[in-house]
Structures are given as C-alpha cells and as structure tokens.
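Feature request, filed as a ticket because there's no other form

It would be nice if the structure record came with a short human-readable summary line next to the tokens. Right now we just get the raw output. Example of a typical job, pasted below so the devs can see what we mean:
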Amino acid sequence: MNRNTNSRSSTINRKRTFLLGKGIGYSISPQIQNAAFKKLRIQAEYNLLDIDEKKFESTIQKISESDDIIGFNVTVPYKEWIIEHLSSIDQRSKDIGAVNAVTIQRKGILRGFNTDCDGIRATLENLGIKPDSGQRGIVLGAGGAARACVYTLGKIGFDSVCILNRTASRARALANHFRMQFPKMKIDIGDLTEENLHIGLGDCDLLINSTSSSTGKGFPIRLDLTLAQKRLKAFDLGYRSQGPFLKTVLQRGFKATDGLLMLVEQAASSFEIWTGKTAPRKEMMAAAKLALNRK
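Raw output as currently delivered:
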C-alpha cells in the first residue's frame, strides 16, 4: 500500500523538461537528459516538443503558466525568436543574440541562457584549437548556432572570421552584431558558394559547418579542399552520422570532428542550470552513443 502511494506521489511530483523546435524527431536529447535524471535520482523527464511556427507564441504562453515545467532547451528555428518572450536573459545570451536553454524560476518568469558556446568551446579544445591571436576561421551558416560559434571564436582570440551563408541579409546582421563586440577581429561575409569557400580555405585554420546540412540534410555545395593548408581543422555541428561535409574533410586527411561532444556538453550545462547539480557527463555521453547506435 505504501509502495503504491509512493509511486503515485513520485508520478504527481515529476517535473518536465523538453526540447522545443521544429522537425526535431531525429534528436537524441531525451536519452541524454533522462540518463542524467536517472543517475542523480531526480524526479523529472525530458521529451521533444515539435511545433510549427504558427503555434510558437501560444505554446510559450502555456509553458509559462505551467506548474511542473522546470526548464527547456530551444533549437532551430527558435533560438532567436524565444528572446522576446523571456523575462530576462544572461549576459552571454545578450552578447550572442540567441538562447538555447530556458529555466522557469517561477510561474510566468522565464530566464534564458546560451549553453551552446560551452559545447563549442569544449569541442574546439578537443580539436586542439588553443586561445591565440592570428587564427582565421570560416563559419558556414548564420543561424543561432552560427552566432554561438562566432562568439566563441571571438572570445578565444581569432584574428578573423568569414561567415558564408545562402541568405546574405542574415550573414550581414550576424557580422554587424559581433563587430561591435570584437573590434579587433575582422569579420567578413559572403555567399555560400563553391568559389567563395574554395578561395577562403587558402588561409584558414578552422572550418565550421553550422548549416542545415549539419542536421542530416545534404551539403548545399561541392566542397573543394585543394587550397586548404595542412593545419586546417574542421567541426561539423551535426552528430547523427558522417554527412558529405565531414566525410570529405576526413577523407582528405584533415583533423575533424562531429557535434556529439558539443551536444552533450551543452546538455550538461543546461541540466546544471535547471537542477543546480553537477551533471553526470560520463553517463550522458554513454547514453548519447547508445542512442546513436540504436538509431
């Protein structure tokens, strides 16, 4: 009798977290976060909340009025949209101009954070990218993740960054946003074309792919690496499988990595914001690898 009562009580008291985005059925974030909750015996669960843009505002309103949601992650296309619906955001989110983690401090009070840059920094360290002046980078894409990438490169002292994107206005807005923050870092923009990337790789230390191809879609252009220097390193934010971008880079013998470490590290930082506890990173990475093997 007591066991049944305790079971009902734990179910009633279970808190909710989730990933908010569009077209996110591929995500393994639930497996990662639920492994952390289980390890620390926290009565909470993490799920996917896939919504259309038309339902975004009404969904955020419902979330803010909820009694059992402690926080959530935000992904494409809502990392920039979410900001105007939050009560406040931390300084790093202001600097980046995008939010990927939200905590509900109390009903109606939502605070935003950016933990993507934690994952990006951890990945760059793992690649052997050290804080230094004189390094040159190319970032493909101009969405919320690209913003976190450019911010991180500015913070670790890159000399220049070139943003290549299919929509020029988004690349221009991103560049203008960061030129004020990092006046010593030269920020150029260009169309994402085979020719522009080919020329840019002639003097490049780091190439980051944050385009939609990093989530499993085909890479939009042919990747010509004939001008790339041996020192080039590459980072593909995708983590589900080796897409054409990562395969091409690795086949040419360059050091490169996918986005799995970034995914786990940003998840761990989000977990710590929601719970106030140290995230069990070892278990979270193990859960991520297991989920990928099963899918």
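Something like this underneath would help us a lot:
Residues 5-10 have pLDDT under 50 and may be disordered.
The longest strand covers residues 15-21.
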